[in-house]
Amino acid sequence: MIGEEGRGLQQALVTLDGGRIGIGALSIGLAQAALEYASGYAKERQAFGQPIANYEAIQWMLADAATEIEAARMMIQRAAWLKQEGRPYTVEEGEMIDWIDPETAEVKPVDGIQHAVMSHCALQPDFVDEHTAMVEAVFRLFLANGNQPMSAEDLSDKLKRPAVTILRTLSGARIYRGLRPFGLSRLEETPADEAAKVEA
Fold first, then answer.
1. Contacts of 10 (CB under 8 A, 6+ apart)
2. Residue 25: helix, strand or coil by DSSP?
3. Per-residue pLDDT averaged across 112-121, rounded?
4. What is the rounded average pLDDT for all residues in the chain?
5. 8-84 has which CATH code?
6. 34 pLDDT tier (thresholds 50, 70, 90)
7. Is the pTM of this model over 0.90?
8. What percent of the chain is helix, strand and coil (3-state, nearest 5)?
9. 42 near 53, Cβ under 8 Å?
10. C-beta separation of 58 from 64 below 8 A
11. Angle at 152 between CA 130 and CA 132, to 5 degrees
């Protein structure tokens, strides 16, 4: 017999815990390589006459990825150091907090800032009000909605403004926070215009 009788599962899990450090290190290496490739691609890929790396939305994605990779690297290094020192290095149950979706009861890991926006800031009466600029209000609604897709009708219902006005504002020539929405030409077409296209 290897180990203490009746503790086979616990002993096997301890062995797996050590392996997780190595797997984590491999995963961080893969993530770092993917980030470097994505950064290079963003500098080469052209959109609207310039590299997509020039747009803030892409810069945010790359910065977020770099931050998460660096945080994971530090956690893996700390776990390896704790193991080397003979100290506990596993995360005990209850130390990590997940968010439970009240509509689906699905347990989701969630970013702390995102959770604060959804559970506190979005509930404040002045989070979005009549004084909030249109584009800023739309971005705040997307944040409060967990960055899930929202239709023009959803936005209209929450902002109390016509959907076409919202879309016209967002589809202007101005690039806002690195985003350039689609054109508005189809919104301005009338049923007669559509019929003329069909006849043509």
1. none
2. helix
3. 67
4. 75
5. 1.20.140.10
6. very high
7. no
8. 60, 5, 35
9. yes
10. no
11. 20
